[in-house]
Give the backbone structure.
Amino acid sequence: MNKWFKTGKPYIWLTAGAVSVSLIAVLGLLALIAWRGLSFFWPAAIHEVEVRANDGSTQVIIGEVYDREEIPIERLQESGVTLEGFEGETLERQLFKVGNREFVPLDFMWVMKPQIIRDETPANLAVIERSKDGNFYGYVVDVLENGESVATSDNLRDVLFERIERAVELNEKASELQQGPIGAINYELNQLRLESRALELEGQLTEAEKQRIADEEQALRESYKELEKELFAYREAASRDTVVMKDMRGMEVKLPMYRVLDATFPNDMGLFSKIGHFFVQIGKFVSEDPREANTEGGVFPAIFGTVFMVLLMSVIVTPFGVIAAVYLHEYAGKNAVTRLIRIAVINLAGVPSIVYGVFGLGFFVYMVGGSLDQIFYPEALPSPTFGTPGVMWSAITLAILTLPVVIVSTEEGLSRIPSTLREGSLALGATKAETLWRIILPMASPAIMTGLILAVARAAGEVAPLMLVGVVKSAPMLPVDGNFPYFHLDRKFMHLGFHIYDVGFQSPNVEAARPLVYATSFLLVTVIVGLNLTAIGVRNHLREKYRSLEH
């Protein structure tokens, strides 16, 4: 036995076992997140249940079963709930999502299973997805056009889907008009205002300049009026139709079609229809804007903000990290100053991320950004341009946070390159700079990509510093649009990590937000894995390309 331990094999097996357990735990965690998140998009059955209250009265509830749990009888008795004739230590209660927020106090309702006296899933129960007030559950009674019925019992669903498609198309045209040409006019009007202010500060606002600016403003306002008429025409056309629903109270409710996004009949769906609907809902989740305080809709602005910020951070951190590593390894002498710099770089990797956020807010935002506003944007003051948190300061802050990772990884790659290659290049007449540019850095590029991979993995998941230097709950505009200069690095942005925090801990509707936390978490992991796989592919390509130089 002692001889076996001396061979070191037990430690190999222990290490392999620890790695296996860790891998299984990580995969299990990802599977749990994926299951809890992706199941949210599966079309659940809609129940119509009749519930008997403690006083003997009955109530009809229409909704989907959102959750189930076993609860001790003692806990119910302590809370004042009495269930006569029930024997046992625990009972099951079900959480129903009943929607219809404008007509019920809460759109989620707990029901004790013994209180249910009837539970059915009628095929004609519908789920109406709306842009406001969440889902509406009930029976489709009629479709109206300008107050007149346009559907019969035979073609009710066909007419409903046709009118919904029409309303959605008109709303999309109105949204494109508002965010496109109308938004561009508003942007140009603001630029003219800033130009007028700048000329005034410089003492060059002559009468001719005033007249020119006034003429341009007038032309823009005339165009705005024409576009506004077109916008109102779209909205008026979209508000023509109405769907009449019968809710769980037995009352008929008229829902304006311009607020309806989709209608489904989950109880009447087959397996393939449910699979198709599942992928459609996932597509909407990753391509649409959030609604209802981030508890409804999609997360596209957060995806875009995360990827854009990480790419911008990568562009900033890579050259600085490589230059610092090259200096420390190739040029710096082996003295106390160099050792001090190395210690400082290593210690920077252990600084809490929130400290970087405070530093970014104080130095980059208030000092650097405020100075830029004073020098280049005085016409916009007192409204700050760069003297306020934005995507540029977030990228620079995270670049400093991940800089030690890139430096250490690059320096390790430089140290693995044989000195004979340097000496051979110099012997053939190349300068040190040429050797570095043509031989050393290409061979060290896989190590540089490794450092970038680690930097991206850390930066994409950071939230604490971003809360101070640029991320917001809801960004009205993306950092990239069609207005010159197209990349607006001064704008705030949304981030998947902060979105998870906001939905999970700041949401007014906890039950509605819970599955979105899992879905967004799985999406964040997917985005990070996608970015890393792209970087790994580039690294492997570079490794194969320059492998011949090692021999």
Q: What stands out?
A: The chain has a mean pLDDT of 88. The two ends are 43 Å apart (CA to CA).
